[in-house]
Design brief:
This is histidine kinase. Its EC number is 2.7.13.3. Keywords: Coiled coil, Kinase, Phosphoprotein, Transferase. GO terms for molecular function: phosphorelay sensor kinase activity. The protein is α+β, with helices and mostly antiparallel strands. It has 7 domains: 117 residues, Beta-Lactamase; 116 residues, 2-Layer Sandwich (Beta-Lactamase), CATH 3.30.450; 110 residues, Beta-Lactamase; 108 residues, PAS domain (Beta-Lactamase, 2-Layer Sandwich); 82 residues, Beta-Lactamase; 191 residues, no CATH class; 155 residues, Heat Shock Protein 90 (2-Layer Sandwich), CATH 3.30.565.10. It is built from 31 helices and 32 strands. It has a 5-stranded antiparallel sheet with strand order 2-1-5-4-3. Strands 7-6-10-9-8 form a 5-stranded antiparallel sheet, with helices on both faces. Helix 24 packs antiparallel against helix 25. 21% of the residues are buried.
């Protein structure tokens, strides 16, 4: 490299300043021209139409057209043909345009025609863009080829000038092309600084591979991105490391500026000056070493940091430590003695011992200690002893709040303990198999399942485990494991394993891989389960299946098994009834005579129709259907040939009579229950704990009497209907025998459909439908249209009118209709009786639970929701007239080990008090949930009963649980209700709390859940 020994530093600086001004002038020249002032010819045109939209003055001077002329022309009008880069291809021309959209810009050669028709060779650079309305446009920057050559000549001259200037500077000077990352210029100073020749370094790839330090590449890239993003000509400074050719590391400092920009203002070239600052950096590192103590403190610091000089007893704290220990740095002077006082008594002695060892033996320490406070919390204290340059003994350390992480760690250990306990209780053996090191870690119910101690079993490797497997199962099991390991797939095997007492038991082994990546070390975790009970169950199930098969084959009833409508099996009785020797490819529709048969899926569980024997004979059959699994059914057939239609009606009447007798018996039983209830009332009134029953009896009697009245009325109507049917049945049977089978079946179909389809209408809607039916029947020529319309709508069977319309022309239709309506009316009365019985049964069930009070009972597992619902049912008569009950229960049953009869007394007193407090109008809320109410994490069942009544006055709130204290009038209450509540709760070792204000009172009962209780 050429140098000028006579040039001073000041002269060098002046030349650098001159160079910077020269670069700024060039940059300003680049940016000063836009559109009309641009030194290049610029045109904008519509890519769809090809028409010019705008152009600058430079283009008009290049082509000789006026701007007005150009705006009437298209691209092809001023071109001899499509010829990008001299290639006559229209497809290629449009491909260049699409590349412009893909890459932002595209450059190619193009021949234009000027106003004289002369060809002008140009270079075109397109910038494509899309407007918000979706139109596609292009901006073309056009340069004549002779202009490009002139610019290249000017550039060469500038480069010679730069080369001449930079030869005299003691620095590396370079110009880098940002598009290609290549160096357009690099002076020879690189050889003296780093020992490399200039030529191979002209690529950025060589620079990365051989010169730039890899740890500084991210820093350099961030620096380059910042210059590109900020798009200005400021000077950017960066320090980074490079490698000398001899392998030594040097520090460089560069000053860079954006040297050139494109038309959009984006930098395209960077000018830089670099100097070797290795010596300066070494001085900086030496200065850093002088602050070694601070660096050491900062290195180990995780939260608050402290420093204690033992000779002077001086102590230093960082601000974080003051904050952690909640002291004001302006009011607190830290010493080792005051520092120790922050710890709890147990932790103080541990900390003092660690400090002594650190001072005398230079032993570092890492402790978990408890800080005394409100509340106490745990910290991690670290420390070590170091020697300063003045030979003073200094102990430095850090203190970190680990209270939350410690709690989580303890919780994790507790969860692990619970997991092991669950494994033991469920009889599962758990394993973790490290395949690479052939080590198995065992846990779980090893003792109870196999008889081995866990220490014995943990000595087993994979071969030891295989040796315990029954010889007949060993090879197959080993192969399954090898396949699972080879494919990293789940492992599942059944085999027999030898217990410690040499007895083999069946085991189900299920394993999976924690990491299924075949390139990493595999680990398999899994469980062994004793399936002896499962095998025994399957054996019993097989015996049951054999018994079923015997019953199935020798049953007198015809039975088939189907998949959909395909018969896949049939017993001997079926083959005999239908005349089939083989059932291969026989479908259900082949043995059914119903032309409207639409598949077994659409049939009820039991239905009657005509069947077809193999010889074509029709037989009446009753079919019973049961789905045994999805799409698979069992059908049984009963031959109804010997049962005639008249006999079926008599049987039906007999069944109605029997049901009526049953209803009458139930009525007598209910009346007897009421008498017993009254007797129970007199007994309970004598017992203070059951006095609340007196409040219920009136409402319960009313609740029972209402459905009883409905039962009595319906029973009388049924008796009258049965008498009428018996009187008319012979006539109806005779009439049925004279009509065609189709009419007879339609008549029965109408009756059956009317049993099912009931839609009672009222008011104007009923009148409208009656009128419509009457008009339809009159149009059909029915003589009794008004009577029939009234009867049909009153019984709510108007939906079956189409069948009546087919029958109403018959001469004896009215006889059939009246008989059928009596039959339908009877079934509706039966349904009314059944609904009433269900209501009474529900009340009696609740009353039974309430009245059978076991005074000397023992604790039992009780559903708490059902316990409370018993009381709510009994108070239904008081609640339903004006009280809204809001229930907030868990989604599943809540079981509690308790005295259920005692708890019923609690809910009775609290609920009735709430009803009275609201004057029988308001909102009653009952909620049940599980909660934790103390620091021991003990679990409780919380029952809250809330009302929006008058509330409890503050001055009497503390007295309400005292015996004989009452706010009711004389004779209305004894004052023992809440006393009983309190005693029952205490008997359960529970708590009772009350909150009250006008408009809101909440009684909260907390009942403990024993730890050994399963919910």
């Amino acid at each position: 490299m050429e140098t000028n020994d006579e040039m001073t530093l000041e002269e060098a600086k002046e030349k650098i300043a001159y160079l910077e001004n020269l670069l700024k002038d060039r940059n300003q020249t680049t940016y000063k021209t836009i559109f009309d002032q641009d030194e290049n010819a610029v045109v904008v045109f519509d890519l769809e139409s090809g028409l010019f939209i705008d152009c600058n003055a430079k283009l008009t001077s290049v082509l000789g057209f006026t701007k007005e002329q150009l705006l009437t022309l298209s691209v092809i009008d001023i071109s001899p043909k499509y010829q990008p880069n001299g290639q006559p291809s229209e497809v290629l021309a449009f491909q260049y345009i699409e590349d412009g959209f893909k890459f932002g810009t595209v450059k190619f050669d193009w021949v234009h025609i000027n106003h004289l028709g002369e060809e002008i060779f140009c270079e075109v650079q397109l910038y494509n863009y899309i407007q918000e309305d979706g139109k596609r446009f292009a901006k073309g920057v056009i340069q004549k080829k002779d202009q490009i050559l002139e610019l290249q000549k000017k550039l060469d001259e500038k480069e010679k000038l730069l080369s001449k200037v930079t030869k005299t500077l003691p620095a590396i000077i370079y110009i880098q092309d940002l598009a290609t990352d290549e160096f357009l210029y690099l002076n020879n100073s690189i050889e003296s600084f780093l020992g490399f020749e200039v030529e191979p370094i002209l690529t950025y790839e060589f620079l990365i591979k051989h010169i730039l330090h890899p740890d500084d590449l991210d820093l350099i890239n961030t620096h380059a991105k910042k210059m590109l993003d900020e798009k200005n000509t400021d000077i950017y400074v960066l320090d980074f490391r490079v490698f000398h050719k001899n392998g030594n590391v040097h520090w460089f400092r560069v000053w860079e500026t954006n040297f050139s920009f494109n038309k959009d203002g984006i930098p395209t070239e960077v000018l830089g000056v670099a100097q070797d600052i290795t010596n300066t950096k070494r001085i900086e590192l030496d200065l850093k070493k002088q602050n070694e103590l601070s660096e050491e403190i900062r290195r180990i610091s995780k939260s608050g940091v402290w420093e204690w000089t033992t000779q002077s007893n001086l102590m230093f704290w960082t601000p974080d430590l003051y904050h952690l220990l909640k002291v004001n740095p302006n009011q607190f002077n830290p010493t080792i003695q005051s520092f120790i006082q922050f710890f709890s008594e147990t932790s103080k002695s541990i900390f003092i011992e660690a400090l002594n060892k650190a001072e005398k033996e230079f032993s570092p320490f890492d402790l978990e200690l408890e800080i005394a406070g409100d509340p106490n919390f745990w910290v991690r204290v670290q420390g070590k002893s170091i020697h300063s340059e003045t030979d003073k003994n200094i102990i430095i350390g850090s203190i970190e709040d680990i209270d939350d992480t410690r709690k989580k760690r303890i919780a994790l250990l507790e969860n692990e303990a619970r997991f092991h306990q669950v494994a033991n209780q469920t009889g599962l053996i758990i394993y973790d198999y490290d395949i690479k090191h052939d080590k198995i870690t065992w846990d779980g119910a090893i003792q109870s399942v196999l008889g081995y101690d866990i220490e014995e079993f943990n000595h087993l490797d994979i071969e030891g485990w295989l040796n315990l497997i029954h010889p007949d199962d060993r090879m197959f099991t080993k192969e399954l494991l090898a396949d699972a390991i080879g494919t990293r797939s789940p492992y599942h095997a059944f085999y027999r394993i030898r217990r410690k007492d040499n007895i083999y038991i069946p085991i189900e082994d299920r394993g999976t891989f924690i990491n299924s990546d075949i390139f990493t070390d595999p680990r398999q975790v899994g469980v062994l389960e004793n399936v002896s009970a499962k095998f025994e169950f399957e054996s019993k199930l097989q015996s049951k299946e054999e018994r079923f098969r015997n019953f199935y084959n020798f049953a007198s009833e015809a039975i088939i098994i189907t998949e959909g409508d395909l018969i896949i099996d049939a017993n001997l009785a079926f083959r005999k009834l239908f005349g089939y020797e083989s059932i291969q490819n026989v479908y259900v529709n082949e043995i059914i005579a119903d032309p409207l048969w639409n598949g077994i899926y659409n049939k009820d569980k039991s239905f009657s129709l005509e069947g077809i024997k193999k010889d074509g004979t029709l037989i009446p059959i009753q079919v019973n259907k049961k789905e045994i699994e999805e799409g698979k059914f069992i059908l049984s057939f009963i031959d109804l040939t010997l049962i005639n239609e008249a006999e079926s009606i008599k049987v039906a009447l007999k069944e109605i009579q029997e049901k009526n007798n049953l209803i009458i018996n139930q009525k007598y039983e209910l009346e007897k229950t009421i008498d017993e209830l009254k007797l129970t009332q007199s007994q309970l009134i004598q017992n203070e704990k059951m006095a609340s029953l007196g409040q219920l009896i009136a409402g319960i009697a009313h609740e029972i009497n209402n459905p009883m009245g409905a039962i009595q009325a319906s029973s009388q109507l049924i008796l009258e209907n049965i008498k009428n049917q018996i009187l008319n049945q012979d006539k109806i049977i005779q009439l049925l025998s004279t009509i065609k089978t189709e009419k007879r079946e339609l008549y029965f179909q109408w009756m059956v459909s009317s049993f099912i389809k009931r839609n009672h209408l009222h008011g104007s809607e009923a009148r409208r439908v009656k009128k419509s039916i009457r008009e339809r029947l009159e149009n059909l020529g029915c003589n009794d249209s008004e009577y029939i319309a009234e009867e049909v709508v009153d019984l709510g069977v108007q939906d079956c009118l189409p069948m009546i319309e087919q029958l109403c022309h018959d001469e004896d239709f009215l006889e059939f209709f009246n008989y059928g309506m009596v039959y339908i009316h009877t079934t509706q009365n039966l349904n009314s009786i059944l609904e009433s019985i269900q209501r009474v049964s529900k009340i009696l069930y609740a009353l039974k639970n309430f009245s059978h009070f076991d005074k000397y009972g023992e604790k039992t597992m009780t559903d708490l929701i059902s316990n409370i619902e018993t009381v709510l049912i009994l108070y239904n008569s008081q609640i339903k007239s004006g009280i809204e009950v809001i229930r907030e229960y868990p989604s599943s049953q809540v079981f509690l080990y308790c005295y259920p009869d005692d708890l019923i007394q609690v809910w009775t007193n609290l609920i009735f008090n709430a009803i009275q407090a609201m004057s029988y109008k308001g909102i009653l809320s009952v909620s049940i949930k599980e909660t934790e109410v103390d620091e021991n994490r003990k679990k409780w069942i919380q029952v809250s009963i809330e009302d929006n009544g008058c509330g409890i006055k503050a001055e009497i709130k503390d007295k309400i649980f005292e015996p004989f204290f009452t706010t009711k009038e004389l004779g209305e209450g004894s004052g023992l209700g809440l006393d009983i509540v309190k005693r029952v709760v205490l008997k359960h070792e529970g708590r009772i709390e009350v909150e009250s204000q006008p408009g809101k009172t909440i009684f909260t009962i907390l009942l403990p859940i024993p730890e050994d209780t399963t919910h």
